[in-house]
Amino acid sequence: MTKTKIELIESLLSEATALTYNDDNLDKVKKRSEMIAKKVFGDKSEYIAKLNKIRFSPSIVWSGMDRSIYNSTFESGKRELINLINVMLEDVNLSNVLDGSQNLETLNSELSENIFIVHGHNEEMKQSSARFLEKIDLKPIILHEQPNKGKTIIEKFNDYSNVSFAIVLLSADDVAFSKNEEVENASFRARQNVIFELGFFIGKIGRECVVVLHEQVDNFEIPSDYQGVLYIPYDNSGNWKLSVAKELKAIGYKIDGNKLLE
């Protein structure tokens, strides 16, 4: 039976994960990676160029060079290869989300390119989310960056909330604890206006069109009142981008997997 694209990439991922230093299979895995990338994504795919840039040995060597440098360079290349194969796998999964939909083009044309970002005080989360959306050709809507046009904050919010998708950023901005508890039992939580806007967008555009990115800190309080909403950890490795892209793809947005690598 012919293997599916996902099965091919998953088998490649298993081979890459099993590689060890000085492994005779390294050359085979590299060549097979390029072959599968061409078959699945085409001869001009950026995956091929990125595969060719991965190094498993030092670019400069000298007499008496510590063997640990060779090993660390190999391990770095192996991690890079595994990460790239994981992105390839996610790309195929994204492409399959809406397979068979008869109204994909119509659905896509009705979606707004504007994506509302609800945020707290974490500037890094806000800017990273905005730049990510721009990279995949969508327009981040950050309320305080939009012109007021003489309107009140509520009127302005109502105007700019006409979107098809919202990303809500929960950052550790407030410290809270019950009056019956000690201060030592306090937990971090998002600002209450952020929680309010989360509920607003769930009601307006539906929970399937809202994702929540939450800061990864100890004792962080995740809202328990919103069932069915996807909570995604905001991790430094950037895996949250793949998760958000998958949700965008699921409701009809066209996402170029290559742009996730840039």
How many helical stretches? 9
Indicate how many domains the architecture comprises: 2
Strand segment count: 7
- CATH architecture designation of the largest domain: 3-Layer(aba) Sandwich
Helix content: 40-55%
CATH topology of the largest domain: Rossmann fold
**Average of per-residue pLDDT values:** 84
Beta-strand residue percentage = 5-15%
Q: Outline the low-pLDDT stretches.
A: 98-107
Structural category is: alpha/beta
Question: Strand order across the biggest sheet?
Answer: 2-1-3-6-7
Largest sheet: 5 strands, parallel
What oligomeric state is this?
A: single chain
Q: What spatial form do the alpha-carbon principal axes imply?
A: globular
In angstroms, what separates the terminal alpha carbons?
35 Å
> What is the CATH class of the largest domain?
Alpha Beta
Radius of gyration: 22 Å
One letter per element, helices H and strands E, the order comes to: HHHHHEHEHEEEHEEH
By CATH, the superfamily of the largest domain comes out as Response regulator
